[in-house]
Amino acid sequence: MAAQLIDGAALSRLWRARLSERVTALKARGTLPGLAVILVGDNPASQVYVRNKVKACQEVGIHSVLETYPASLTEDALLARVRALNADPAIHGILVQLPLPAHIDAQRVIETIAPEKDVDGFHVANAGALMVGRPGFWPCTPYGCMKMLEHIGCDPCGKHAVVIGRSNIVGKPMALMLLQANATVTICHSATADLAHHTRQADIVVAAVGKRNVLTADMVKPGAVVIDVGMNRDEAGKLCGDVDFEGVRQVAGWITPVPGGVGPMTITMLLLNTVEAAERAAR
Ligand SMILES: NC(=O)C1=CN([C@@H]2O[C@H](COP(=O)(O)OP(=O)(O)OC[C@H]3O[C@@H](n4cnc5c(N)ncnc54)[C@H](OP(=O)(O)O)[C@@H]3O)[C@@H](O)[C@H]2O)C=CC1
Ligand SMILES: Nc1nc(=O)c2c([nH]1)NC[C@@H]1CN(c3ccc(C(=O)N[C@@H](CCC(=O)O)C(=O)O)cc3)C=[N+]21
Ligand SMILES: [Mg+2]
């Protein structure tokens, strides 16, 4: 029997409807949630993502400000913009789209964002909060994956979760969230000796690598939950994930599609973090 689909677009609609209500309640108390999005350079993928984020804000009533700069923008000028937004009471969330041009130190920019406005959850203070289990902001992509598990009634407690990838924005926080939810967690990466050996034991697999067909049917335990974070293009230029979708869906119990899976949920969690930031500021 083929796997059931985890529909990230549908789950996003559900969450966005709930968020609209929270925005309405905030407005009634005199707070209009505001998100500032900064885009530097003309990376076409970034332009699409940023446009989607601004559109999503409109959908739930969040005020959004998009600032676009040429790739020649200096690091100092960018840091000055971030500091101005830190001080702007109309802005509750700040997102600097990655990647940044090579002459700008991305980590330095992220550390300049006030942690209470870091709705990406990339600041070291928020990474630390996740690490020790204190309130902060969780990175949107793994956060969205956790919401998808919850939605299908998959409680990670006692399950073996295998995360493929260990980046600071996806793989590592994903592993920490699963650990916090009492899964037994294995983290695989480019130096992992036998990836299939690990994934075959997994009740939950999260693929966050950025390479097509990293996970194939022979690597998956029957009935496993498979979450595909990857955003790649096939030879025809079509969007695809890290998972061999057609093969793996024959074996898995649940699977996320690309597009329409983790991507929309990432944006929805950005909205959630922004609403949460505004609610905290209004307290
Ligand atoms: N849907 C969404 O909302 C989002 C999607 N993405 C997509 O997710 C993917 C991952 O993003 P990101 O984490 O930023 O990517 P990174 O390139 O930062 O990290 C990739 C990770 O994969 C590991 N890796 C590389 N090759 C292999 C391999 N053959 N086997 C096992 N592990 C491997 C790397 O290992 P090592 O550490 O050893 O180098 C690294 O840890 C990309 O496709 C990206 O576009 C990202 C963010 C949001
Ligand atoms: N500061 C920062 N924060 C990020 O969260 C961030 C970032 N930089 N840089 C790039 C990555 C990537 N990312 C995606 C978000 C949504 C989709 C998404 O909506 N995908 C759609 C398809 C989009 C399309 O058609 O291209 C889907 O999967 O259905 C994809 C990728 C956020 N990122
Ligand atoms: Mg990356």
Automatic annotation (TrEMBL):
<comment type="similarity">
    <text>Belongs to the tetrahydrofolate dehydrogenase/cyclohydrolase family.</text>
</comment>
<comment type="pathway">
    <text>One-carbon metabolism; tetrahydrofolate interconversion.</text>
</comment>
<keyword id="KW-0028">Amino-acid biosynthesis</keyword>
<keyword id="KW-0554">One-carbon metabolism</keyword>
<protein>
    <recommendedName>
        <fullName>Bifunctional protein FolD</fullName>
        <ecNumber>1.5.1.5</ecNumber>
        <ecNumber>3.5.4.9</ecNumber>
    </recommendedName>
</protein>
<feature type="domain" description="Tetrahydrofolate dehydrogenase/cyclohydrolase catalytic">
    <location>
        <begin position="6"/>
        <end position="120"/>
    </location>
</feature>
<dbReference type="GO" id="GO:0004477">
    <property type="term" value="F:methenyltetrahydrofolate cyclohydrolase activity"/>
</dbReference>
<dbReference type="InterPro" id="IPR020867">
    <property type="entry name" value="THF_DH/CycHdrlase_CS"/>
</dbReference>
<dbReference type="Pfam" id="PF02882">
    <property type="entry name" value="THF_DHG_CYH_C"/>
</dbReference>
<keyword id="KW-0511">Multifunctional enzyme</keyword>
<feature type="binding site">
    <location>
        <begin position="165"/>
        <end position="167"/>
    </location>
    <ligand>
        <name>NADP(+)</name>
    </ligand>
</feature>
<dbReference type="InterPro" id="IPR000672">
    <property type="entry name" value="THF_DH/CycHdrlase"/>
</dbReference>
<dbReference type="GO" id="GO:0000105">
    <property type="term" value="P:L-histidine biosynthetic process"/>
</dbReference>
<dbReference type="GO" id="GO:0005829">
    <property type="term" value="C:cytosol"/>
</dbReference>
<keyword id="KW-0486">Methionine biosynthesis</keyword>
<keyword id="KW-0560">Oxidoreductase</keyword>
<dbReference type="Pfam" id="PF00763">
    <property type="entry name" value="THF_DHG_CYH"/>
</dbReference>
<feature type="domain" description="Tetrahydrofolate dehydrogenase/cyclohydrolase NAD(P)-binding">
    <location>
        <begin position="139"/>
        <end position="281"/>
    </location>
</feature>
<dbReference type="InterPro" id="IPR046346">
    <property type="entry name" value="Aminoacid_DH-like_N_sf"/>
</dbReference>
<dbReference type="InterPro" id="IPR020630">
    <property type="entry name" value="THF_DH/CycHdrlase_cat_dom"/>
</dbReference>
<comment type="function">
    <text>Catalyzes the oxidation of 5,10-methylenetetrahydrofolate to 5,10-methenyltetrahydrofolate and then the hydrolysis of 5,10-methenyltetrahydrofolate to 10-formyltetrahydrofolate.</text>
</comment>
<dbReference type="GO" id="GO:0035999">
    <property type="term" value="P:tetrahydrofolate interconversion"/>
</dbReference>
<keyword id="KW-0521">NADP</keyword>
<dbReference type="GO" id="GO:0009086">
    <property type="term" value="P:methionine biosynthetic process"/>
</dbReference>
<keyword id="KW-0658">Purine biosynthesis</keyword>
<dbReference type="InterPro" id="IPR020631">
    <property type="entry name" value="THF_DH/CycHdrlase_NAD-bd_dom"/>
</dbReference>
<dbReference type="GO" id="GO:0006164">
    <property type="term" value="P:purine nucleotide biosynthetic process"/>
</dbReference>
<keyword id="KW-0368">Histidine biosynthesis</keyword>
<keyword id="KW-0378">Hydrolase</keyword>
<dbReference type="GO" id="GO:0004488">
    <property type="term" value="F:methylenetetrahydrofolate dehydrogenase (NADP+) activity"/>
</dbReference>
<dbReference type="InterPro" id="IPR036291">
    <property type="entry name" value="NAD(P)-bd_dom_sf"/>
</dbReference>
<comment type="subunit">
    <text>Homodimer.</text>
</comment>
